[in-house]
Specification:
alpha+beta
């Protein structure tokens, strides 16, 4: 079992960020409820079971390994949390995947629906937006 997740939604998101930077597929996957929906500009991922969740999220983590080994890191320059009572929250983060020379390989906002189940926070839904450079809005 991995270490416990923080009990605060903001700290939960920052621990999730640390899992990405560590390339920890198990911890990244553990942040998501099963089932969970992930919307991105190319479509909708319905992670209805552990295998689907691991295939989608694990594949994304794996795709970053070479850059992570070269020192590239995920950053979260902005994070807004809206509490929806004691056991739910909305979180909007801006994720930037930045090389050591300052080049941003990815830069996009992402909104999550978090719920507290079984005494811990999990992502129930995730909406990944287009990057600021490609958005028409």
């Amino acid at each position: 079992m991995s270490k416990p997740w923080p009990d605060d939604p903001r700290e939960f998101l920052l621990a999730y960020l640390a899992a990405w930077n560590a390339g920890d597929i198990d911890r990244v996957c553990d942040a998501y409820l099963v089932p969970a929906l992930i919307y991105h500009p190319d479509g909708l991922e319905a992670n209805l079971d552990d295998a689907a969740r691991r295939a989608y999220l694990g594949g994304y983590v794996e795709s970053t390994r070479e850059e992570l080994s070269a020192g590239t890191r995920w950053e979260c320059p902005s994070l807004e949390i809206t509490r929806l009572g004691r056991n739910a929250a909305l979180a909007t983060a801006r994720w930037v995947f930045r090389r050591t020379d300052g080049t941003a390989l990815e830069d996009y906002p992402d909104t999550y629906v978090l719920v507290r189940l079984g005494g811990r926070w999990v992502f129930m839904a995730d909406v990944i937006y287009e990057s600021a450079e490609t958005s028409s809005d």
